[in-house]
């Protein structure tokens, strides 16, 4: 398989044949790996009603789609900074 300077498009990725994929740099998942594996539950979101100032909401909405995710990332970083 040839090296690429730019990321492949989804169509190009779909065209790659299984036998042409190089898996040599991926470690085997042996019994030792599974013995030490830990189940990590996802931290799911929960729908809530939240009152915020209009100026705050306008700030997060300004860049476009995804404002709720942006707000959540800011809140999450605050929680982590508190050592929680």
What would you say about this model in short?
With 84 residues, this protein is an all-alpha fold. 42% of the residues lie in helices and 0% in strands.
Describe this structure as you would to a colleague.
The model has no long low-confidence stretch (mean pLDDT 91). The longest helix is centred in the last third of the chain and has 15 residues, at 67-81. This protein has helices spanning 10-15, 31-36, 54-61, 67-81. The protein has one domain. With 84 residues, it is mainly alpha-helical.
Descriptive tags:
84 residues; mainly alpha; 4 helices
Strand and helix map with partners:
Layout: H1 10-15, H2 31-36, H3 54-61, H4 67-81
């Amino acid at each position: 398989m040839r090296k690429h300077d730019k990321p492949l498009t989804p169509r190009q990725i779909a065209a790659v044949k299984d036998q042409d994929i190089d898996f040599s740099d991926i470690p085997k998942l042996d019994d030792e790996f599974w013995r030490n594996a830990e189940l990590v539950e996802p931290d799911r979101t929960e729908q809530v009603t939240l009152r915020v100032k209009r100026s705050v909401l306008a700030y997060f909405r300004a860049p476009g789609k995804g404002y709720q995710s942006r707000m959540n990332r800011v809140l999450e970083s605050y929680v982590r900074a508190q050592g929680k």
